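Notes continue from the previous slide.

Worked example: a multi-chain complex. Inputs as given:
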Amino acid sequence: MIPGLNTDISLHQQIYLNSWHFLILSIFAVALVRAARPGMARGLILICCNIYFISYFMYGLYPVLVLGVLILLTYAVGHIKAKWGESWPDWVPVFIVVLLWICLFFIKDPDLLAPVNAFHYYPVQIIGISYLVFRSISYVLDVEIFEDRTFVGFINYMIFFPSLLAGPIERYDQFEKHYFAAELEPDVDVLAALHRIANGVIKKFVLADNLMPFGIFMKPADGDMALPLIWVGVMFQLALIYLDFSGYCDIVLGLARLMGIPLCENFDKPFRATNIQDFWNRWHISLSLFIRDYVFIPLNRLFVRHGPKSYQFFLIMATYLFCMMLIALWHGTSWGFFIFGLLQGAALIWLQILKRFVNPRFQNSSWSKFYKESLLAHWSARGLTYVFFSISILFWFFSPQKAIQIIKSLLGG
Amino acid sequence: MRDRMVARDVASVLWLVIKIAIVLLFMNSTQTFFLYQNF
């Protein structure tokens, strides 16, 4: 760390989503962006709002420089790819994407591979850096399909303030569809959008924040707790994270809808999931779809085209595991997240094995009929999925040893 | 039909006001955490 270079975001004043500051900025943004003419005027007004918001999370010149380089390079690479991309070898976009992933991991964890990590010596904190890098990757890979590309539009896409802090990870083609439209979503249901924001504020700032002490992650790691309290703490944590994150998403999606640039949904009743694959299709959807579209499908396509036929199932299973590891290590590069990724990957692989080898054998059995039609089986599957995910996220908050100790305590050990 | 739509909108506004009151009454302004901001 360089003396005097303190870019720690938490030390500085921010704009909280439940502040008057954010409310006034939002009202201004909605009114001005909607009133502006399409094109440069709308772009410049939106860019002012975005820069104003992001300025509360960036301290010093260094983070601005890193963000500026990311935006400029992404736009330049996208521009070159759109023009000459067809003559590029296949490995060039892959190389760029891998480079961006490595940069992301290095920025997020300055101690990762410290000797070769430049951010170990020049650490930088940029709010929502993961989401910025994901947008960069998405833009570079899909640039050929975009119809309207302007530099101002691209900056607005990258730092669109409602989704700056934690997504959702919007795709450029969805953003441009509304951003460049002659009229910003004219038939928006204002009352529905306001209800969505109010629901989000209640979920995030009334429920999640007030119920936070019930989550096991708030308990001291070395404290002893009674068994019922451990169960309550472990089972509560997933609900709290859901209220926290989906509440934030409701606020952001409602605001973006009022502005006339709607964003993609991030949750679809995740606690109705009956297995872990179903859960990931309903939880943090924009991340799951991002990994599916830019990692899982390209890798599987590669294996199907070039991999040996007899190993294809094994390779596809390895891809499931790799994707889950990527999602887990994106959350944090610690052993806890590594184990979380392994658990999620193993659960997905187990599900695929059941689908491929076990289910066909019992397709017409009474057990299969019971599983498909019985309400008890359905609710049990929901409950098991919830419990499995709740237990696996213990590894987010505690060291592996402590998490295993909590799991043992849950079982009465 | 029109009266029914107006009544529905009025009810919706009232429900929104109640939600805002809940927020103002019960919002925890002393502590806030946002896990995903750190990711």
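Summary box: Chain B has one domain: 2-38. The radius of gyration of chain B is 17 Å.
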